[in-house]
Design brief:
alpha/beta, inorganic pyrophosphatase (n-terminal core), six-stranded parallel sheet, six-stranded mixed sheet, 12 strands, DHHA2
Length: 372
């Protein structure tokens, strides 16, 4: 596919990184720490829009919120960008830009995409946040009263970005940009599945408009979803330790590793327990959660495990909170597990995702774990 405006923009942004100190303002569009497809594509596409709207004294830099060495673990991201001939070398990763230095110089204008809660290590950046776009339930402890905030409960952050592009600069929605946004929406909503119940009317509306913009690429909705799901589930080159980092969230200092397979399948790996133990040591935690999700034959199945590394009471508190939660009810059923330290559950409410599980775990973590 021929080079379009997105590829040109990314190449220019990478060049600007070499003399970033010469700009009065550096507008950093920062995705979340998982850097899944929704986060990655929404940050790239929204940066393209900001680049159109910015003043000459500013530069726009989209940033994947992971170190460069973690990028190969994001198999669906690398697959999709490579497929569209978007040079990964022109993408800036978190370890390649000094946000602290820019913040201290008062030149940083930070835009948060696909998240609105800063982890403790990034809390010092809060004063530099000028805009937030997210599709998660609002955490009231982060009101963002001084920022331009778009918080709406839809299936994909790319839906919100697509809506902004169509309303403010529709000419930027090239076939490449359209298929990137469309694919991310499909992957986040299980191909707009009504059974899974993640997609909203706005997701459907934006997916339809985006599909119309990339009709020249000759790919159907089901095929695109299958290709991306296959890429996300392709863990053949990943070790068990890498798999735990592939889709990681940390809430109240409790790591919640998301897997593209069921946890029960992961635990069949010979090195699974050792990988989780090392994972807990690396994150200095006595308890962690592993969350599995698998899409097959048109439906999603989910399971989760709470691992007691060195704090049985904390693990039991998390289990109790997950089992007793009513809005939504996860409908957890205990499953036999022969791997010591793991409490494994099948989640029969498939409409509840990790986005709903994370606040439950955060509330437990804030209550039972010391803050120091």
């Amino acid at each position: 596919m021929e080079t379009d405006e997105l590829s040109k923009f990314l190449s220019q942004a990478r060049t600007c990184m070499k003399n970033i100190q010469s700009f009065k303002y550096v507008m950093v569009v920062l995705g979340n720490e998982t850097c899944d497809l929704d986060s990655a594509i929404s940050s790239l596409a929204y940066s393209l829009l900001l680049n159109r709207l910015k003043t000459t004294e500013s530069v726009v830099i989209p940033v994947f919120n992971i170190p460069r060495e973690h990028l190969p673990m994001k198999t669906e991201v690398t697959y999709f960008l490579n497929k569209l001939n978007i040079d990964l070398n022109n993408v800036t990763c978190r370890n390649e830009i000094n946000l602290e230095e820019l913040n201290n110089k008062d030149s940083l204008k930070l835009i948060l995409l696909d998240h609105h809660v800063l982890p403790p290590a990034d809390a010092y950046l809060a004063a530099s946040v000028v805009s937030v776009i997210d599709h998660r339930p609002h955490d009231p402890s982060w009101p963002w009263t001084s920022a331009d905030v778009t918080l709406r409960s839809v299936g994909s952050c790319c839906t919100l970005v697509a809506e902004k592009l169509f309303s403010q600069a529709p000419d930027l929605v090239s076939p490449n940009v359209a298929i990137l946004l469309w694919g991310a929406i499909l992957l986040d909503t299980a191909c707009l599945s009504s059974e899974v119940g993640i997609a909203t009317s706005l997701d459907h509306q934006m997916a339809t408009k985006l599909q119309g913009c990339c009709s020249s690429l000759s790919i159907g909705q089901d095929q695109l979803f299958r290709d991306l799901k296959r890429a996300k589930s392709d863990i053949s080159s990943l070790t068990s330790s890498q798999l735990l980092l592939k889709d990681l969230k940390v809430t109240a200092r409790i790591p919640v590793a998301g897997l593209p397979i069921k946890v029960q399948e992961f635990l069949k790996r010979e090195d699974a327990k050792r990988a989780v133990q090392d994972f807990c040591e690396a994150y200095k935690t006595k308890v962690c959660v592993v969350y599995g999700s698998e899409f097959a034959q048109g439906t999603v199945t989910r399971d989760l495990a709470v691992y007691n590394h060195a704090d049985k009471n904390a693990a039991l508190e998390i289990v109790a909170a997950l089992k007793s939660n009513k809005d939504p009810s996860l409908d957890l059923q205990p499953q036999p597990c022969s791997v010591e330290g793991f409490m494994l559950f099948e989640q029969f409410n498939i409409k509840a995702t990790r986005k709903q599980v994370l606040p439950i775990i955060r509330q437990v973590g804030e209550k039972i774990l010391p803050t120091s």
